[in-house]
């Protein structure tokens, strides 16, 4: 064996060892980041096999976040957030919950085809119902698929503040347990059915009186009888009409349905969300404002029910005046609001 050959063998071995060390260092670094993430979010696993599985999912999501954020052509950013150890399939199965009802609607509630804001001609250039004290703190539905209850409750809370001057934290659990008129508790539901129940019950009680437990249960009629807010009916915003939705949102918080199951949605962190969704409505949120960014991008402001450590403190800005009449993620397809 010549000297050059020996030298090449030695160099090749050293290079291979160096590469192996770098790969190991990267793997250790990711494992450390996962440990830090677990501590931050209070996550534990049943055994080492489960932990290794979640580490691989975490790494895949982290790679996806870095890829999207480094593209540089988006108006929003993603992060390794509280859902980073879930596959998108797992996320979709537990964190949404909107279902358009197929049940015939009762005629006991004040339901009409009218749109009370149809004649509105002037609206403010921006609106943020948080600044007007009409939005309670961000809540977390957990693994109960009852986003519909949180969306409806936030809309009623906002209207109650507007009408009475008092911001009252109302009970989602009451709706999960008692608003069974076409809804399925932790297994999906519809905001209009929730509004209809509140009308029939002649009110909704407080969160303190009927606290959220993130699971189905039997309706406690005694707790449900202690009303803290009332509505007389509800109306639907004309479908596929962002202008109509704007008129309504200028006057009160609005319940809206969206397609909110995509990977970008799952890992959203900040900025104006501009894509990664269709119009297969599966999640409910509350529209609590709108505005225009410094670069001229128009957006809606939505309150979600995934806790404060998702998005912008629990909120998302999403593109407004989208090319499709349905709105981005279908936000203009199935909007409604309570009346009092």
Automatic annotation (TrEMBL):
UniProt record, GO biological process: proteolysis involved in protein catabolic process
Start and end residues of each Cathepsin propeptide inhibitor domain: 34-91
The Peptidase C1A papain C-terminal domain, residue ranges: 123-339
PROSITE patterns membership: THIOL_PROTEASE_ASN, THIOL_PROTEASE_CYS, THIOL_PROTEASE_HIS
An example Gene Ontology CC term for this record: lysosome
Protein keywords: Disulfide bond, Glycoprotein, Hydrolase, Protease, Signal, Thiol protease
Highest rank taxon of the organism: Eukaryota
Coiled-coil intervals: none
Stored SUPFAM superfamilies: Cysteine proteinases
Signal peptide: 1-20
GO molecular function, one term: cysteine-type endopeptidase activity
Name of the protein in its database record: Vignain
Protein's organism: Juglans regia (English walnut)
């Amino acid at each position: 064996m010549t000297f050059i050959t020996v030298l090449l063998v030695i160099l090749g071995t050293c290079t291979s060892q160096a590469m192996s060390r770098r790969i190991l260092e990267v793997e250790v670094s990711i494992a450390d980041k996962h440990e830090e993430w677990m501590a931050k979010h209070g996550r534990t696993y049943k055994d080492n096999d489960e932990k290794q599985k979640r580490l691989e999912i975490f790494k895949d999501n982290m790679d996806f976040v870095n890829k999207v954020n480094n593209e540089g052509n988006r108006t929003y950013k993603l992060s390794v957030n509280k859902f980073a150890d879930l596959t998108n399939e797992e996320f979709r199965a537990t964190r949404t919950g909107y279902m358009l009802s197929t049940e015939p609607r009762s005629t006991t509630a004040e339901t009409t085809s009218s749109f009370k804001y149809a004649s509105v001609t002037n609206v403010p250039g921006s609106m943020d119902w948080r600044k007007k004290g009409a939005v309670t703190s961000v809540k977390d539905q957990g693994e109960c698929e009852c986003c519909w209850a949180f969306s409806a409750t936030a809309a009623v809370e906002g209207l109650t503040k507007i009408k009475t001057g008092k911001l009252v934290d109302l009970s989602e659990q009451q709706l999960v347990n008692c608003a069974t008129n076409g809804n399925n508790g932790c297994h999906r539901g519809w905001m209009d059915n929730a509004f209809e129940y509140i009308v029939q019950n002649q009110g909704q009680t407080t969160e303190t009186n009927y606290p959220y437990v993130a699971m189905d249960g039997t309706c406690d009629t005694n707790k449900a009888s202690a009303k803290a807010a009332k509505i007389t009916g509800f109306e639907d915003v004309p479908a596929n009409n962002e202008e109509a939705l704007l008129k309504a949102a200028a006057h009160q918080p609005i319940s809206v349905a969206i397609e909110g199951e995509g990977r970008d949605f799952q890992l959203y962190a900040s900025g104006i969300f501009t894509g990664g969704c269709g119009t297969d409505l599966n999640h409910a949120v509350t529209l609590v404002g709108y505005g225009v960014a410094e670069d001229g991008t128009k957006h809606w402001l939505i309150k979600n029910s995934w806790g404060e450590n998702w998005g912008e403190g629990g909120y998302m800005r999403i593109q407004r005046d989208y090319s499709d009449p349905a709105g981005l993620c279908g936000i203009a397809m199935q909007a409604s609001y309570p009346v009092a």
